[in-house]
Amino acid sequence: MRRVMVAGNWKMHGSFAGNRQLVEEISAGLSADAAVDVAVFVPAPYLAATVELTANSAIAVGAQDVSVHEQGAFTGETSGAMITDCGATMTLVGHSERRTLHGESSEAVARKAEAALGCGLTPVVCIGETLEQREAGTTEAVVAEQIDAVIDQLGIAGLARCVLAYEPVWAIGTGVTASPQQAQDVHAFIRSKIAAVDATIGGQLRILYGGSVKGSNASELFAMADIDGGLIGGASLSAENFLPICRAGEQA
Ligand code: PGA
Hints:
alpha/beta; TIM Barrel; 8-stranded parallel beta barrel; 8 strands; 46% helix; binds 2-phosphoglycolic acid
């Protein structure tokens, strides 16, 4: 049976005290043998403390970005080795806010995924189209280009070690969720594109959906054949909103 992943992206939110309360409430609400993989992607200053807070739970901790560089004169950057040194095991790469606000190209995102893998981190590679691109009918071309950049950089075997997160930019933080069918259509396209290169990898790769996922829509999204979980922004900032999504993941 497939196992769903529910991943919280805290973005630039949090404090030591607030994170402690949030993690304690999430852990308390999850059964020890919960049939769902739960992860939180936290701001870099909170990585080590969050790893400690989650030590007795099944919650994985990840960073929100990683440098392509190993070390050196790159002020403000965080290397993959530093993230693993904090005890985290995953990192987001290519979130649309990084692509848009920091001009990260698909090639740069692919290099970040490679840097993460090189440090033993699982990269969650975020992809997705803008509203203009969807309206212009280029959704598949856009996500294909974003995936091809990763395959070019890592090979299909490298992609197999990643998780993909399809996040239509128009659905992120807007309250507008892609309908389950809209999301499924793109997920099926992504999976078949990868399966055309390697059927086993295409079948097994985890593809999360992100963009205004909440307790009220998680079940129907996770019920779709090619949606293997969710990347949750706003609704990951309180246990009251996040736990129902985890439960929907358990039941999927
Ligand atoms: P959202 O954000 O759930 O608030 O739409 C998702 C994300 O940015 O990963």
